[in-house]
Amino acid sequence: MNSHKVMLCKGLQVKVILFAAVVVISQPLVQAAVRGNDWKDLLLTLNEKNALDQFKEKMAPRVPESYMKSDFYLIRWLRAKYLNIPAAQNMLNENLKWREVNRMKEILTEDWSDMKEDFPLTISNHDRQGRPVATLEMGDWDLRSAVLQGRMPRLLRYMDWYQEEIIRQILAAQDDGKNVTRATVLVDIEGFNLLQHLCASCMSVFIRMTAGMETHYPGFWEEIIVVGAPAGSRIGLEAVRPVMSPQTREILKIFDMNKRQWGSYLDERISPDQRTTRYGGTKKINDN
């Protein structure tokens, strides 16, 4: 029975066998239909199913939005706490408080044009499996100036906005019948330097960004691909690692300035028409 998996997402396009109203699927069959880590999100072990039933009974009445009541959403909090139900309850309850205090229902309608100009990022692309791709051109961000100008609270909220937008795009893909449960993040740090990016105040920003991702959006990331890393940037990346969960460390891929190397890696995951020329693609910046 330990090899049996319970199907989590009804959109999965594979054949299933029904036993006593429980959907059981072989792991290789799902992996063949869904590439990457998404297949892990579409299946539950029996232990996970039992824990989820208890967790859902306690938390579904408390969450404010319909998608948060879904197994797809709730299982992430359990897995983040290794199926420890009280710990997962506490984590999700704290997140709900954070969402209310920070008015997360309003964040998608706020005007971010000033931030997009000074801290460029895009979320209009998709990888070869249909997952949303967020591209953060952090090498062009002047974090030190943001600190000196008192813009850090807005920058951190901007990071919350992009992650919230990613979740909405994942949900939209599911509504379209796609087996998408995660997003890919491409972080370009070419141009990182000690003055603008690796000062003490700047590093605190990266640590808070990473902690926010782990605390408020656990398990929604397929890969975090860092490209263009100068030699000195390793110091900053290592400083952030302790904030990352073991799961996030596993999906973090770091490439140096060798564009041929990381370009080949991107070719396998993101088609050229979904990447700008900066990343070896053909897409124009203003393309949708």
From TrEMBL:
Membrane-spanning segments: none
Superkingdom field: Eukaryota
Every CRAL-TRIO domain range: 111-287
Any one annotated GO CC term: cytoplasm
InterPro entries: CRAL-TRIO_dom, CRAL-TRIO_dom_sf, CRAL/TRIO_N_dom_sf, SEC14/CRAL-TRIO_domain
Entry keywords, A to Z: Signal
SUPFAM superfamilies: CRAL/TRIO domain, CRAL/TRIO N-terminal domain
Pfam families: CRAL_TRIO
Xref: CDD domains: SEC14
Signal peptide: 1-32
Name of the protein in its database record: SEC14-like protein 2
Species of the source: Orchesella cincta (Springtail)
Lineage: Eukaryota, Metazoa, Ecdysozoa, Arthropoda, Hexapoda
